[in-house]
Structures are given as structure tokens and as C-alpha cells.
Predict the 3D structure of the following.
Amino acid sequence: MRILVVEDEHKIANSIKRGLEQEAYAVDVAYDGESGFDFAITEDYDAIILDLMLPKMDGVEVCKKLRQSEIHTPILMLTAKGLLHDKVNGLNAGADDYLVKPFAFAELVARVRALTRRPKESLSPILTVEDLSLNTLTFEVRRAGKYIDLSKKEYALLEYLLRNKNRVLTKDHIINHVWDYDADILPNTVEVYIGYLRNKIDKPFADSPVLIHTVRGFGYKIGRNNQ
Ligand code: CA
């Protein structure tokens, strides 16, 4: 999952970035409203954390312009004041949720998780396919009851595949949602990471069905069979 943080206070912005990266999100940061808007319309984010008070263009304006541009990415608005009219303005401009500063980081993560979760998955934090399960709260991945140790990026890639179970995802799509803007992406980066995942979730489980499939000329998918 890829998140955009628009916040002019560098310390706050960078600590949100570091914190979300610990939670396996890919995070880009913009330090003013204009560049935040530019990032949000050119890249494909799963959620945007948007500060209200920003130089060049404030959060309400960014939000309005994004919705006018048909960008419907979920937006969590940050407000320093907690005044009722700020919340109302933000929500009227098209924000999905708001959080009053200062906030506990755990609460920010919980809000971001709620925004990036698809409605049909909202009842369970556990994503599954066949005998594989991924717990988005504890980061535990298991197959056939066995615990599987994944790196942060492997986990992020697997989570993204599982959220789009049985759908073919192109390499570009995967890169856009699993890696941030500054990441060093080589032409075979996705292939390499798919290979790492296969070595951990498919190869050791010869008695279980293969889950990760290559769809030649299109991309990859996770699912029971390659139909
Ligand atoms: Ca600010």
C-alpha cells in the first residue's frame, strides 16, 4: 500500500513517513499544498494524509481540487486546532476522515488502515487464499499452519497481491502500490521479489496448490489456479 503525506512541518512529516514504513507502507512526502496536489494527481496512492495548514495551497483547497479532478483516493485530514469548523470544512471538501494534532501514532495507523481497507474486507484483518493467511494487525504470515518469515517488502507485496486476490496485476501497478517514488526500481525488481515470495510461500509447500501465477505478457496474480 502506498501513502502520500502532505505536511509542511518536516519533523512531523518525516516521523509519519518512518512510522508508516515500519508498518510496511511505501510513503512519499510533499511539503506544500501545490506539490502535494501534483503528486496526488500523477501517482497512484492508496491513501493521502493531508495537513490542513499548508503553504502555497491549504489542505481544504487541495482536497477540493483533487475531488474536482476525479481523484477519489481516501484522504485523512490533519488539523492542529480541532475546531469544529475546520473538521466540517475538511469533510465538506471531500476528506474521508480527520485527526486532531497532536495525535498518537497508533491512532494514525488505525485510521490509515481503515481508509485503505476495502469494504468487503472490513470485518476481518486477516487476508487469506487457500491455506495461506496474512494478519494485517500482527504481520504474521502462515501457510498450512507454518509461520513464514518475510522481509518488509515481501510482506508489502504479498499483502497487495492478497488484497487483489484472483486479479491480474501488471508490474507497473505493483510498483505503483508497493514502492515509493524514491525507490530504486530496476526493470526486474518485481520479478525478483515475486521470486523471493515464491521461494517462501510456494516452493516449500509441495503438497499445497501453487498460489502465485505469472500471466504471460500481463503480470502476476495470487489465487487457487491460473485461470
Ligand atoms: Ca502545517
Summary: Residues 212 and 222 are 5 Å apart (CA to CA). The longest helix spans residues 189-202.
